[in-house]
Amino acid sequence: MYRKTLSDILSKPELLVIGLMSGTSADGMDAALVRISGTGTALKASLVSFLTLPYTGQERDEILRLASGNSGGSRDLALFSFWLGSFSAKACLAVCEKAGISPDTVDLVGSHGQTLWHIPEGESYLGQSVRATLQAGEASQIAEALSCPVVSDFRVRDMAAGGQGAPLVPYTEWLLYRSEENCMGLQNIGGIGNLTVIPRAASPSQVFAFDTGPGNMILDRLAEIFSEGKLHMDPGGQMAAQGTPDPELLAFLLSDPYLSRKPPKTTGREHYGEAFVQALLKKAEDLSLTHESIMATSTLFTARTIGDAVTGLSSPMPEKLLVGGGGSHNLTLMTMLQDLLPIPVLRQEDAGYDSDAKEAVAFAILASECIHGTCNSMPGVTGASHSVVMGKISL
Fold it and tell me: Do 304 and 250 meet the contact criterion of CB atoms below 8 Å apart?
């Protein structure tokens, strides 16, 4: 099989790129097949095909075990990273099959990998304050399977420049959603919630973005506990719809110190993982709340973190909020969010995009920008000292 080189790719007016994303919910590997032309503000991208290759229960349990920070040594991390690289390659081949194209036609892959630990603020280590991040998923496994370059490990270059390494999607949102007439609000609700505000006719330095707090992460874990492992989410928000939010539990959750921090800020399972859920459940037990009430309160908590982030903006209030990610399918959450905000709350589909594919598409675009040597970071969002080209290239 002929192996594509960077020279081959850079000579083409249009690229066929696969973007891969495995998020904090750890439900599967998203793969988006995207046609991309141009770079920078001339970039154009269109989604060809998308799918999620789900993890089995055992695979998901292993991801969550390693992402807990409490178990797994160098042997486990090495084995997992190569396993996930192979799984990522399978997702690439599956999306090609769905699109009816040969994998030989793919020019490039952009792989986010699986975040196992993220330390954006720094911790004391060997006498120094060290910030770090770890995304698993060996890119060489993908490059070998598809015979094309792979761009991975996007976060580390931004962190080396003093940034928090997240959120990364705002750059692609600015490219795709910027408007000369409207101020746009974009909320992704994956395991974690991320807000991006793009003022009218904004330059990159005017884009405002940060992690709002938990998205589906707490809700997914509660559904798993309450269903004794039969569910990994609250489908459509059905359990939450049967309960009534409890004001005292909500006040307890809203006292979370992350919410009062000023951007730039980013968070993840390190903060909203098992310890947070157990503290929530202990408080709910003290209040003698039902499962339905706990789920309703926790769903409202996610809605409040987003609603408060939007209404508390120092930048212009967006004229509408486009919601993507798995949380956009939670009707109870979406209704709560609309009740909290004075602007229309819409799904990505209302703007002609795919809610589920958004982040995978973003990593296809970030990969394309990387190989063209185009700065694909937003230091105003991450807190880095300057713009950088994020991503490591495996040939």
Answer: yes
Q: In the prediction, which pLDDT does 129 show?
A: 96
Answer whether 32's CB lies under 8 Å from 169's CB: no
**Regarding the domain delimited by 179-351, which CATH topology (the fold level of the hierarchy) does it fall under?**
Nucleotidyltransferase; domain 5 (3.30.420)
Which pair of tokens denotes residue 247? 């004001």
The whole-angstrom separation of Cα 115 and Cα 26 is: 10
Please give the single-letter amino acid code of residue 197: V
pLDDT of residue 247: 98
Q: Is 245 within 8 Å of 332 (Cβ atoms)?
A: no
Is the full-model pTM beyond 0.85? Answer: yes
pLDDT in tens, 221-269: 999 999 999 999 999 999 999 999 999 999 999 999 999 999 999 999 9
The tokens for 277 are 């859920």
Q: DSSP string of 53-120?
A: EEPPHHHHHHHHHHHTSSS--HHHHHHHHHHHHHHHHHHHHHHHHHHT--GGG--EEEEEEEEEEEEE
Report the alpha-carbon angle 137-142-147, nearest 5: 160
Helix (H, G, I), strand (E, B) or coil at 33: strand
Domain at 6-169+357-394: CATH code = 3.30.420.40
* CA-based nearest residue to 367, from 86, 139, 204, 80: 139
Residues 43-62, mean pLDDT to the nearest whole number: 97
